[in-house]
Design a protein that fits this description.
- The chain is mainly α and about 130 residues long.
- It has four helices and two strands.
Length: about 130
């Protein structure tokens, strides 16, 4: 991903802004008692990653000049897009399929014994 590439809003996984506890105490205490406040548009979920994957993602995010959160959100958005595009492609192809097309393809197959190792087991197909 190129540096500073924006992730579309509907693909973002972002942490809501922390809200400090106003009960007093020093900055260190305040940092420990931060709580997350979420609104309807920015829902977050904890994500558990193996440390090796997290380290690799952090390294790549640094190389791209983006935050780890933004890099992971972009990677997930790319994967979701690829999977959905493939599913749409195969769904469209399946809708256009006609049994007579398959019969025409099968008619091209030669009538001969299978190659060694390609035989069906003695019990037949499962």
């Amino acid at each position: 991903m190129p540096p500073n590439t924006a992730v579309p809003r509907d693909c973002r996984i972002s942490a809501p802004a922390p809200v400090a506890n106003t009960s007093g105490g020093d900055a260190e205490d305040q940092g420990r008692v931060l709580r997350r406040q979420s609104d309807q548009d920015d829902e977050t979920d904890p994500l558990k990653l193996p440390s090796s994957i997290k380290a690799a993602a952090a390294r790549l995010a640094k190389e791209d000049g983006v935050s780890l959160n933004q890099w992971i959100a972009s990677a997930i958005a790319q994967k979701v897009g690829a999977v959905e595009a493939a599913a749409d492609f195969f769904r469209t192809r399946a809708e256009e399929a006609r049994p007579e097309d398959l019969h025409a393809i099968l008619a091209l197959a030669r009538d001969r014994a299978p190659d060694a190792g390609d035989e069906l087991p003695p019990s037949g197909p499962r």
